[in-house]
Give the backbone structure.
Amino acid sequence: MHPSVLNMLFGEHTDAVLGYGLPIDAFCRLDTPKRHALAASVTTARSQRQKLEVSKVCGLLAKKGDGVSLRSLLHPGAVDIPYSVFNRISDQSLWSAKDYRQILKLSKCSEARAILRHCRQINRSDITILNELSAPWRKRGIFEALETLQQARALMCLGEAVRFVADADRERAFVAAIGSSGSFSGIEERFWRILYKNQTSPPAPLNSTQSFERINSEKQCRKLAKAGHCFGDLSMIEAVFTSESLFYSWTGAKDAVVELIRDSGPFGWYIGETCRPKAKSLTRLQFKALEEDLLQLRAPVSSNQWTRKIQSAFRALRG
């Protein structure tokens, strides 16, 4: 078969197909489930033993053609994938190697495996969405309500917000509420009711810790101005005394200043701006160290504004 035809048929699988000596004519005559099963074996085989098994399967296909069984087309490392899954794959074309690896990964999760077994048909987007959901969120009612990857990420964001304010137990309660309803109708009210349950107003951050010193005097502003910050400007001095932001000197980087802004609801505070003199920003490693040091403040502080992320999540779920 001409190489251009192979590329048209197999795309990124072409080299693997050639390496295994796959009988092309016999492969093309296979029905869709068997073609997907064999393609999954070709693209997920990693060990030498698995590759040897795939070579044997290709030899078996050459002898038996379409008479080869679906299960025999899966190498030992892929047999955990329920072969009924391949009977429900609706896409007539081959998937990417990444898609097949995701199926193999999901087959090791009992919740995901149960969902796949009950699907009437499986599209590439279904695998992507299911792979995005972490184990606690892999409920049939939740999965069937999701239509896009963006919705899956939005729902996960709401769960993270609940866990940030409360704990993993409260997040599980939210998962159960969504899973039992099987839809996103009224999700905003359910979210806020679960989030606010037994909550108290979040505490204010401490004024001083091992790594932080709150900036709350004109003298401190002058000191920062000498180091190169803009705290000599009247507007910045006024912000220190009148705004809802809190400013801290942080020892994790030379002359670093961190701004904490009050979020709404029970979310406490979030990082507004982090800077060093002459508008120098923190490095990635310094910012990671900052997030760890924030625990010293004994108040809920996030690197992002939760209320903004939550509103975006609701918009995505409403479609």
